[in-house]
Amino acid sequence: MKKGFSVMFALLLTLGMFSTFTDEVSAAGTTVTLQTNQTSASTVRVNVNQHLTMNVYNSGSQRVSYRVFKNGVAQTGYLSVSPGARIYNKVAKGDGAYSLRIYCESSSGTGCKAGAGIIPF
Q1: DSSP class of 10
Q2: Helix, strand or coil for residue 7?
Q3: Concatenated DSSP letters for 12-70?
Q4: Virtual CA dihedral for 40, 33, 60, 97, nearest 10 degrees?
Q5: In this structure, are residues 48 and 75 in contact, taking their beta carbons and an 8 Å threshold?
Q6: Among the four residues 3, 61, 65, 121, which has the most C-beta atoms within 10 Å?
Q7: What is d(CA 62, CA 85) in angstroms, rounded to the nearest whole number?
Q8: Cα angle 65, 69, 71; round to 5
Q9: Is the C-alpha dihedral spanning 86, 65, 43, 32 positive or negative?
Q10: How far apart are CA 87 and CA 76, in angstroms?
Q11: How many CB atoms lie within 10 A of CB 27?
């Protein structure tokens, strides 16, 4: 009986540490990379209380665009980023779960390389 209790306690402790770790990661922000074989890529949603920082970097030779979503609803139109350019914005947006999606704007829809991220502050 004691051994079963010890195993159960260790399991609960491990699950509790994992839950704390994942909460800290989501509070820190989220990033995504658009690979050359993808047409688009999205960050996971991150909870924002008041402000967020968005960063989009186009490291390829094709134009990319991005959109910002709040609770799954688009908050911006398609915003363009030229090859080699970096967009960095600090924004006061209000409470919600935010994500950012980047799109390849090449004629084939692929061949772009870019990265993006959202950090709440």
Answers
A1: H
A2: helix
A3: HHHHHHHHHHHHHHHHH-EEEEE-TT-SEEEPPPEEESSEEEEEEEE-SSS-EEEEEEE
A4: 60
A5: no
A6: 65
A7: 11
A8: 165
A9: negative
A10: 14
A11: 12
86 three-class SS: strand
Q: How many CB atoms lie within 10 A of CB 33?
A: 14
Tell me 75's DSSP state.
-
Provide the β-strand partners of residue 44.
none
Check: pTM over 0.90? Answer yes or no: no
**What gap in Å lies between CA 45 and CA 47, rounded to an integer?**
7
What number is the average pLDDT over the span 31-50?
A: 94
CA dist., res. 41 & res. 45, Å (int): 13
Which residue type, as a one-letter code, is found at position 74? A
- Beta-ladder partners of 113: none
Do 120 and 71 meet the contact criterion of CB atoms below 8 Å apart? no
Q: Which two tokens stand for residue 115?
A: 């990265």
Q: Any idea which of 8-17, 26-35, 58-67, 96-105 has the lowest mean pLDDT?
A: 8-17
pLDDT band at 3 (very low <50, low <70, confident <90, very high): low
